[in-house]
Amino acid sequence: MLFQRLSACLWTALAVVGAANAYEGDPDVRSIPLRTHSLAPPYLDSDMQSRWFDFGGDTIIRADKYIRLTSDKPSQQGWIFSRVPLTATNWEIEIEFKIHGAGNLHGDGFALWLTKQRATQGPVFGSTDRFEGLGIFFDTYKNNRPGVTFPYVMAMMGDGQTTYDQAHDGKANELAGCSARGIRDASIPTKARLTYFQDKSLTLDLQYKADHSWTNCFTLTAPEYNIAIPAVSYLGLSAETGELSDNHDIISVTSHNLYSVTGGSNRGSGPSSGRGRPAAATPKQQKTSGGWGWFFFKVILFFGAIVGGYFGWTLYRSKQRYSRF
Asked: Which Pfam families does its entry note (predicted)?
C-alpha cells in the first residue's frame, strides 16, 4: 500500500513539472496551458453549453469537427468570446482555422480579438466597431487597396473611438500586416500564432505554405509601436459574409501563459532578432535551466531512500517476530 502511494506521489510530481513545457523560442521560458481560453472538440459540455465561451449570431458548432462562425451564405455574422478576461502578462494563442467555400468569388473574412468589449455583434468582421484593444483581421475580399494582394492579414490597435476604415480595407488603421494568399482553401491545416510579451513585443506567425512550417507575418517591438493590449481583455473570434460568402471554421484554439524560470517573475524575456521570441539565455541562465536533470536525480534519490527505508523496516519487523520464538 505504501509503495503504491509513493508511486502515485512520484507520478504527480512528474506531472506537475511536465505541465510547464519548455517554450519553443527559449528553454528558459516556460508555458502553462490556459484551459479557460482554449477550445478543442467536442467544444461543448454535457449540457450543450461551453463553460468558458459564449457564442452567438449565425455560429454553428459541430462538436466533432469545427465551430463555424459563418456558413457559405450571404449576410451572415457569427462570434465566440471568452467568458473570463485574459489577464496573463505574457501569452501565446494558436488557432487552427479553415476558410473555404464554393465558387471563385468569396468574402469577407474573420477576426481574432483581444478587447475590453465582448460578445457584441457588429460591422467589423462580425463584431463591434470602435473597439478598445487588439484586432487581427483575416480579410479575404479586396474593396479598395491598390497594390495589395489578398487575402490580407492585418493588425489594428483600437482606442475605443476610432472607426475601422472598411472602405479601404483598414488602410488608415493598419498597425502591421502581410499578404497571405494561401490561407483560403489551403491543402494543409492553416494556423495563426500570436505571441505577446507585455511592454516588449507582439508577433504573428502563419502556417499555410507547408505543414509545420511557419511564416512570420509581423513582429512589433515597443516603444516603436503601440502594442499595449488592455490588462483586462477578452479573447474572441468573429466572422461575416456580405453578398459574397465563405465557410469560416475554427478547428481549435490553444492558449498558453508564458513565464521565465530564471527571472523569477511572469514577465518573460525580451524579443530576439527577427521573430519577437525571447532572447537567448546567458551562460548563467543556461546553468540554471540545466538544473532540471539534477532536480529529477534528487527526486528519484528521495523516493528511493523512502522505498529503501520501507523495505528495511519490513525486514526488521520480520526478524523481531521470529526472535520471539
From this structure: Lectin_leg-like (PF03388)
* All three cell numbers of 309: 527505508
- Per-residue pLDDT of 143-197, as tens digits, reads 999 999 999 999 999 999 999 999 999 999 999 999 999 999 999 999 999 999 9
List pLDDT tens digits, range 22-64: 566 677 789 999 999 999 999 998 888 899 999 999 999 999 9
Distance separating alpha carbons of residues 224 and 255, to the nearest angstrom: 26
Hey, which residues does 121 pair with through a beta bridge? 127
- DSSP letters along 274-300, please? TT-PBPPPPHHHHHHHTTHHHHHHHHH
Describe the strand order of the beta sheet including 77-82 as a list of residue ranges. Answer: 53-57, 77-82, 234-240, 109-115, 132-139, 152-159, 176-179
31 Cβ contact list (under 8 Å, min separation 6): 20, 21, 22, 23, 92, 256, 257, 258
Give me the DSSP letters along 11-31: HHHHHHHHHSEEETTEEEEEE
